[in-house]
Amino acid sequence: MIPNLIGSRWQEPDSGVSTLPVFNPATGEVIDQVPLSGSTEVGAAVTAAAEAFTRWSRTSVMERVRLMFAYKAILEQHVEDLAAIITRHHGKTLDEARGEVRRGIEVVDFACGAPTLLQGRTLRDVSAGVDQDLYRYPVGVCAGIPPFNFPVMIPLWMFPLAVVAGNTYVLKPSERTPLGAVRLAELFLQAGFPEGVLNVVHGAHDAVDALLVHPEVRAISFVGSEPVARHVYTTAAAHGKRVQALGGAKNHMVVMPDADPEIAVPAILNSAFGNAGERCLSGSVAVVVGRAAGSLIDPLKLGAQSLKVGPGDEQGVQVGPLIRAEHRDRVAGYVDKGVAEGARLLVDGRAEMSRPGFFLGPTVLDHVTGDMSVGREEIFGPVLSVSRAATLDEAIEQANSMALGNMATIFTQSGRAAREFRERVDAGMTGINVPVAQPFAFFPFSGWKRSFYGDLHVHGTDGIEFFTRKKVVVTRW
Ligand code: NAD
Q1: Is residue 317 within 8 Å of 93, Cβ to Cβ?
Q2: Of 16, 389, 435, 453, which is least packed with CB atoms within 10 Å of its CB?
Q3: 208 in contact with ligand 1, CB cutoff 6 A
Q4: In this structure, are 196 and 255 located in the same domain?
Q5: DSSP per-residue letters across 391-429
Q6: 451 CB near ligand 1 (under 6 Å)
Q7: Is the dihedral of CA 376, 459, 103, 52 positive or negative?
Q8: CA nearest neighbour of 26 among 321, 381, 350
Q9: What is the distance between the alpha carbons of residues 341 and 124, in angstroms, rounded to a whole number?
Q10: What CATH number does the domain containing 88 carry?
Q11: For the CA of 452, the nearest atom of ligand 1
């Protein structure tokens, strides 16, 4: 059984706690068991974090940063190790896993800038003989609840910034991909962070609900599906906590008639089928404007058919398995629904379902509209919908009619069309001629609409604001 980390001790929960299997999605084999911890284990982890907070919050910024630099160096030495763990229990290709680790380490790089990032501000002589100074303080015990699809990167969006700001942490990894967080925590201890600064409790909704109502937890970072993001936001806020809750996505990729197909086609394939479509920044709907359809549909079809499907650790594989058989079946169910609702099936990846493991090949549906379930709902798998629009206005309207607003991207050679799109599309992460508009660690991960509940996004200076509270001191001598 995978142990929890409470204080500096790895310990299995009591025998009464049930477990779930962890799979290798490329083979369907069970590789471990994850405990479904409850309020007892969560309580122990929060107590360990609360005890550590007293000392850690008063440890100097330079000492916290020294440890963060040590962690960064250790992570750099373990990129291959972490990538192999990701591929083994998530399924994505090794190249995708390496990319994930790199993007995660970038947040640690950003956290190493704490001596600048944590500065306050000051105004002398605000009135005669009176000065005002703003200081930043940590908020206390913070907790993070990541999804399954980035087992290393998303935990790294959360705890490094929190702890460098002087907070202590309880991480509740995804029960479907818990092993990345375990390795991150081992390396964290190896870097020399004191006992209790980072704790790891495995589990599912019971562990989450225990964190949301625990009086000692001051801040919750969540990333996952929209309904759970809403639940986490409303429950944790009702219990007086600050919350950043990132939800699902239904991202549109607009292709203008002047777009260069040599750029747009590979970008759309990468966006839709990278990570087997299990990304909150995956392009889900390609909106082809006017005559763009003529130069796009056939190459998209050929491109999707030629992607190599297989185990993520096999040379040359471009599309790995989905996370679980049930999820694969749910995604395949969308293909049936799309066809029943009137979409045209251009590429059918369902033949790959006969392999061992949880595979579904790249699938393309054409003539999708916003009133079809495939045009409206998050699918989270390798299914690309293609819709048609007569004008840019119509394409923007299609994107903006979605309840979710995570990412949108446009392919065009027209600065005017690109600017119009940037100004009017309701998506917090907007791309121009890029497949995946992922902000670097020093910008916020900025979902809009129901893709985000809260005020301050993860990482960037929003992250620093989220993990600190401000004190203003007014002084007269
Ligand atoms: P999920 O919502 O099922 O699970 C996320 C976390 O919530 C897990 O740790 C899980 O244990 C917990 N959880 C699940 N159900 C719960 C419940 N009823 N009550 C309390 N906690 C619960 O999400 P997932 O399937 O792991 O991840 C995929 C989803 O995450 C997709 O919708 C995707 O778009 C989204 N996502 C969003 C972003 C973003 O930045 N907006 C990034 C990655 C993934």
Answers
A1: yes
A2: 16
A3: yes
A4: no
A5: SHHHHHHHHHTSSEESEEEEE-S-HHHHHHHHHH---SE
A6: yes
A7: negative
A8: 321
A9: 67
A10: 3.40.605.10
A11: 41
Residues 271 and 299 in one domain: yes
The model carries a pTM of 0.98
User: If you take atom 23 of ligand 1, which residue's CA is the nearest one?
Assistant: 224
Rounded CA separation 208/232 (Å): 8
DSSP codes joined into one string, 292-303:
HHHHHHHHHHHH
Instruction: Find the catalytic residue in 154, 198, 276, 280.
Output: 280
158 shares its domain with 196: yes
Residue 280 bears catalytic tag: yes
Same domain, 212 and 318: no
Q: At what angle do helices 94-111 and 153-164 cross, to 10 degrees?
A: 10
Structural domains counted in the chain: 2
For residue 321 the two structure tokens come to 């398995």
Task: Tell me what the pLDDT averaged over the chain comes to.
Answer: 97
Q: What is the pLDDT of residues 338-382, one digit of tens each?
A: 999 999 999 999 999 999 999 999 999 999 999 999 999 999 999
Statement to judge: residues 106 and 123 lie in one domain: yes
Task: Examine residue 442 and state whether it is found in any structural domain, yes or no.
Answer: no
32, with CB counted inside 10 A (0-12, 13-18, 19+), is: middle
| 307/205 same-domain check | no
In a domain, 412, yes or no: yes
Q: Give the residues across from 130 on adjacent strands.
A: 127, 476
pLDDT for residue 15 is more than 80: no
Look at residue 202 in the predicted model and tell me its pLDDT: 98
